[in-house]
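Quick one:
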Amino acid sequence: MCKEQLEREGLTTHLYTTAMHAMDLPRRYRVIFACDVIGLGGEHKLTMQAMKRCHEHLRPGGIFGLDYMVRWNDPPAWLSRLSENRHALPQKWPFSGDRKTLPDGSELELIARTVSTDPLQNVSVRQIKVRLWENDQLIKEEIYTQKLDDYSKNELMLMLAQAGFNDIKIYGDFENEPATVDSKDLVFIAKK
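Output:
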């Protein structure tokens, strides 16, 4: 999709598809931003490797930014950790989810459920059902399973420091204000 949009706009660039923990690109950057990917994959070791690879791909003084949606302000995610709720997993699929209108007028619906959670390892497995609708008719449905790591603010700060970053600042909800306990998203900005 990115390539198609670049072509429509008459722009060119190099696009790379790679796992962050295996990233090996031919140049170094002033800024790298990891958008909604920290914790995907369910392995702390790979997240740590990804942070190190980002550090290696920055120029001296470069900035690494990442956002992380906290679980403590997501009641279904948090409550799924309780013993009685863990043993009742997987959750039933909700009947419907939020629909977003696409440029061609069709609608994309996302529905999610928790399949399992392991608070000892801070890992959850969830499924996402994606539905494509046209004129209120279901055209296509796909289900994806993803494993998620759960991190605290302090864990992420330690991981960034261990990867070589310093001067780490944390903002809340994509605003230029410090994060609070009520923030739903934490935005970390760190320097090489």
